Amino acid sequence: LPGLDLLLSSPLVRAWQTAEIVAAAYDDMPIGILDAAASGDRTDLLDALRETPEGATVAVVGHEPTHGYWTSWLLAGGDADFVAYKKGEACAVEFGSDVEPGAARLLWKLRPKQLRALGAAE
Q1: pTM
Q2: C-alpha to C-alpha distance for 74 and 35, rounded to whole angstroms
Q3: Which of 6, 7, 29, 56 sees the fewest Cβ atoms within 10 Å?
Q4: What residues form DSSP beta bridges with 26?
Q5: Hey, how many other C-beta atoms are within 10 angstroms of the C-beta on 112?
Q6: How far is CA 50 from the centre of its chain?
Q7: CA-wise closest residue to 104 among 92, 95, 113, 112
Q8: How far apart are alpha carbons 117 and 71 in whole angstroms?
C-alpha cells in the first residue's frame, strides 16, 4: 500500500511483532491496540473501522481463524466463513460510504511469497 493512515494490532505477542514490522515500513508509525483482534468481537471491529475518517487506509494485524471470519463477514455479511489465511498472508478490502457487514469489496489477497516479490521489486 502506498500509504497507511492507521495500524491496529491484536495485543498478543506474535501479532504485535508482525505489526512492528509493518510499522517500520511506514516510518515507524504508531500501532494501536485492537483487543477485538484477539477476542474476535465483530462489533468492536466495526466500531474501530467506523471511527476512522472516510477514505482512510487501515491495517489490522491479527490471527486465524478470526481474520478469515471477519473478512468473509465484511465481504458477504451473515455468518459466511469462506476466507482463510495462512501465516503471513494479507488482504485489502475497501468500503464505499457504508462500513457494514457485506459492504466491503476485496481488492487483493496475497501470500507471503507474493508480498516478498512485491517488496523486492521496489
Answers
A1: 0.87
A2: 18
A3: 56
A4: none
A5: 12
A6: 14
A7: 95
A8: 24
Q: Write the pLDDT tens digit of every residue in 80-100.
A: 899 999 988 999 999 988 999
What is the spatial distance between Cα 5 and Cα 73, in angstroms, rounded to a whole number? Answer: 23
Q: What mean pLDDT is reported for the chain?
A: 91
* Mean pLDDT in order along the chain per 10 residues (122 residues): 90 93 93 91 92 90 92 93 91 91 93 87 74
Closest CA to 42 of 62, 63, 70: 70
Q: What are phi and psi of 8, to 5 degrees?
A: -120, 145
The DSSP code sequence of 21-50 is HHHHHTTT---EE-THHHH--HHHHHHHHH
Distance between CA atoms of residues 117 and 36, nearest Å: 31
* Closest residue by Cα to residue 46 from 18, 8, 84, 20: 8
Distance CA 28, CA 107 (A): 25
